[in-house]
Amino acid sequence: MFSGLLIILLPLILGYLIPLRHDAALKLINRFLSWIVYIILFFMGISLAFLDNLAANLLSILHYSIVTIVVILACNIAALLWLERALPWKNHHQQEKLPSRIAMALESLKLCGVVVLGFLLGLTGLAFLKHATEASEYTLIFLLFLIGIQLRNNGMTLKQIVLNRRGMIVAVVVVASSLTGGVINAFILGLPLKTGLAMASGFGWYSLSGILMTESFGPVIGSAAFFNDLGRELIAIMLIPGLVRQSRSTALGLCGATSMDFTLPVLQRSGGLELVPAAIVHGFILSLLVPVLMAVFSA
């Protein structure tokens, strides 16, 4: 029961204990993370190709993904709109010209393409590809170790987190509403409660959630989690510029864990510099919780 928990948390904690002061080393770690994510998702695609009853499983992945996206986003939006009414967040910023959202969406879809390439290679049935699952496990341990280092050295202090009340509140609402959606999702899809909660704990961090869920629940659930969180990011990119005028809390909350990196430029241009501290705190808290919650629900 606790072996999966240790595989996820131990390398994460060990990485978090390592302080780094050199910018060059941190940049190198960020590059390694990008490469390793592609490698593991490639392995995930290969594992998917070796599933029994492949056609039926692909339909299951599509079904799980669509239902999960609709249920969890509906819960998030309802809760965040309520938060905006209860604690209004005033907007004094004029929107700047945004970069092409299509280009940003295509950047996200590159990872999806890597899964497809791995899947197509797996369909060849080459004997050595059957070891893709074992290879991904060892690569995952190294990935989590590097993520721990990244989280420790991202410049956020406890004081900065505690002082940014809005970022913390939005993060709490996103976590609570996502887990509520996970319970509903498990009921609708006929999944165990822990599986539904684990699928709801990705908070848009698709490159990690898909990997962790594949290791814990197999490639069907893992792929569904990946497409769910990828869909969340793509929807956020499209909706942020319009939402930020009506509900800044909703615009921020829909970004999930990506508000501290990938969707941060869109948030800043749409909502102004005053939105950035809340976005970083919100994204940091969710990024820290993703591996922890998934480890707990996968145990």
Distinct helical segment count: 13
Q: Specify the biggest β-sheet.
A: none
Distance between the termini: 5 Å
**What fraction of the residues are assigned to beta strands by DSSP?**
under 5%
Number of self-contained structural domains: 1
Query: What structural class should be given to the helix and strand makeup?
Result: mainly alpha
Overall average residue pLDDT: 82
State the low-pLDDT regions, or none.
none
Order of helices and strands: HHHHHHHHHHHHH
Please state the CA-atom Rg, rounded to the nearest Å.
19 Å
State the shape.
globular
What is the element layout, followed by pairings?
Blueprint: H1 3-16, H2 23-49, H3 54-86, H4 101-122, H5 132-152, H6 158-163, H7 165-189, H8 193-199, H9 206-217, H10 219-246, H11 248-255, H12 264-271, H13 276-298
Helix pairs in contact: 1-5, 1-13, 2-4, 2-5, 2-9, 2-10, 3-7, 3-10, 3-11, 4-10, 7-8, 7-11, 7-13, 8-13, 9-10, 9-13, 10-11, 10-12
